[in-house]
Every structure is written in C-alpha cells, then in structure tokens.
Amino acid sequence: MGDNNSTFRKVIKEIASTLVYIASVILITFLFITFVAQRTEVSGHSMMNTLQDKDSLIVSKISYEIGDPERFDIVVFPHVDALGNSTYFIKRIIGMPGETVKIDLDGNIYINGQILVESYGREVIKNPGVAYEGVTLGPDEYFVMGDNRNDSMDSRYEDVGNIKRDELVGKAWLRIYPFDSFGIVK
C-alpha cells in the first residue's frame, strides 16, 4: 500500500512541476512580448530599399526605455487615418527634438539650416510637403520619413505630422524573414 501512495505522490509532483514549467514559459513569453520586443511585418513600399514589403521584423520595445532615439533609427509608431482606421507605420527618424527640418524644391533636407548628409533616401524628394516652409520640432517630437521618399506617407504630411516620443513603440532591430535577408536592421 505504501508503494501506491509513493507512486501517486511522484506522479502528482511531476504533473505539478510540469504545470509550473508551462506557466513560467507562458509568463516569460507574455512579459517579453509586452515589454521587450514584438514581431511586426512591413506592409507597403515606403521603406524600400532598406525594407521590403512582407519583411518580418523584431522591434525592440525596450530600446527607448534604456536609451534615447537617434537620428536614422527605424521606428514603429501607431497611426490613425482620417477614417479612424488604426495601423502601425515604420519610418526613419530624420529630425530630432528642438530641430528645424526644411526640404527645398531640389529635394535637399536641411537640419537647422545645414544640409543633412545621408544616403537612405531612394530618390530625389519631389514633394517637400509642410517641410518646405520648415518644421520646428517640440522638445519631445521627431520628424520621420520613409526611405522611398516619393512613396511614403510621413511627417511631411499633416495627416502624420511630428511623432511624439511616447508614441514610439520601438526600434526595428532584426529582420527575421525572408531568411536570405536575416540580420540586424541598419
């Protein structure tokens, strides 16, 4: 009779151990997805040639909890269109808090009157949008643009505008699909 009781206790102990393990994995996964990183998929062509339509990325949500956004970071943020539809945009930071961003009719980007030296833009900007007059950013605002400058809804348009720091979901960190492009997002 003692053997049956001992076997029963071992089975119960093993089941409890397995349940605690499964609950721990679920909790760690939940905390990771909520606070550290999330998977997102690129939809559209606004970030070509850096990112392609259907690329799967890991976005670091913790990056801006432990550090500040930097110029040229690729960021994800929510956008609600005029019809109330909500989606996430992925763009590159061009202007930093307190700066004035201006784009001339030749497609040159100026930061505080100095031409911005960068090589992310896919082509010459045809429409400077509101940046033609110059946009001065607030202390917690960022000016973002897609790399495919002529096919990107971004801060040049009032519908998107400047992005506030607390709207930044995170920084694009790792491309996980397609597999032949796997690697750190630059």
Structure description:
The chain is α+β, with helices and mostly antiparallel strands and 186 residues long. It has two helices and twelve strands; from the N terminus they run H-E-E-H-E-E-E-E-E-E-E-E-E-E. Strands 1, 2, 3, 4, 9, 10, 11 and 12 form an eight-stranded antiparallel sheet that branches. The protein is elongated.
Main sheet makeup: 8 strands, antiparallel
Number of strands: 12
Please mark out the parts with pLDDT under 50 across 5 or more consecutive residues, or reply none.
none
As a whole number of angstroms, the C-alpha radius of gyration is 23 Å
User: Which secondary-structure class do the elements indicate?
Assistant: alpha+beta
Counted by DSSP, the helix tally is: 2
Average pLDDT, to the nearest integer? 87
Q: Characterize the overall form.
A: elongated
Intertermini distance: 67 Å
**Beta-strand percentage range:** 25-35%
The helical percent reads: 10-25%
Topology as H/E string? HEEHEEEEEEEEEE
